Each structure stands twice: as C-alpha cells, then as structure tokens.
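Aim 2 progress update. The chain analyzed this quarter is reproduced below.
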Amino acid sequence: MQFERKDPWLSLCGLNCGLCPMRLGNHCGGCGRGNPACRIARCSLAHGGVAYCFQCSEYPCSTYAQIDAFDSFISHRNQKSDLARAARLGADAYGAEQREKRRILDRLLADYNDGRRKTFYCVAVNLLELQTLREILQEIAERPEIDRLPPKERSACVAGLFQRAAEARGLELKLRRKK
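Predicted structure tokens:
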C-alpha cells in the first residue's frame, strides 16, 4: 500500500507545503508522491491511512515531542498549531486560508523579491497570521512610493515591514537550523 496525499497544501504532519520554497521550485512533490523515506507517512499507513495526524487516535504521540525544535526548508514552529487549526476549522476552510497566503506569497515574490528573499518571504507568510499579512499589503498599497523604488530598495523596504510586524509579535523570520 502506498501513501498518497489528497491535500497538497497541508502535510500529514502539519507543514504548510504550499508555502515551502522547495515546493515553489518544483523540487518536492510532498509526502504524497510516494516518498518512502517519510516515517510519518509510514506511520499513517500503519494507522489506517489517516490524512492528517490529528485524525489518529494516538495523536499527539511521541513523534511530536520535538517536531518543532528546528526547521527544514520551511518553518516547523506552527506545525502543531496549524494541525489544531485545521482540525478546528476543517481541512477545506484551513486550505482556503493557505491558498490566500500562497497568493500573497506569490505577489511578494513577483513584486518585492530582489532575488535573495524567497526563503524570508516563505517564512514570513508561514509564521504571520493572515490578518497581519493583509495589513502589511494594505500598508504597501497606501504607500505608492514603495513601488517606485529601485528593486533592491523596494525589497528591503517591504522586508522591513514584515520584520517589524514579526518583532512586534515576538517572532524571528529565519529558519532555525539543527545544531
């Protein structure tokens, strides 16, 4: 039996795949493309093929004890809370929020990336609440001078807006590597 994902936006374990730089670059098919290395996918199969870990009768299990201790290509910091949100809202409503976040991310990458901020924007959109992202976009819209800046300065200005919003919420917008 092969593990297969129907939801390409939220992984079995709670990662927001639709906001991952590896996924954006078509370098990762996610856990639903027959990735036999994923121990959580193998666990899902052993537990009846649940679509999300929160559907398992043993969740949260020991696998989740340190799952958010460090990041991979995408931040793991919201992994547990995102699973809880998906369980509370339902996968469809949660997916709608993630698709809006992806549209925001696509816009940031198209209009405000100087070629060096892909991971920064992926982390920012993943960690910040949707309402905060909307507020930042509104601020950008209210400041047309931003769009008249040269690309590097425009990128730095917008990244600064995200940085300030994150700092106000006690967030750090960078990946935490395993030491």
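Helices lie at 21-24, 39-46, 79-89, 91-111, 118-127, 130-142, 151-168. The mean pLDDT is 89. These observations will guide the mutagenesis experiments scheduled for the next reporting period.
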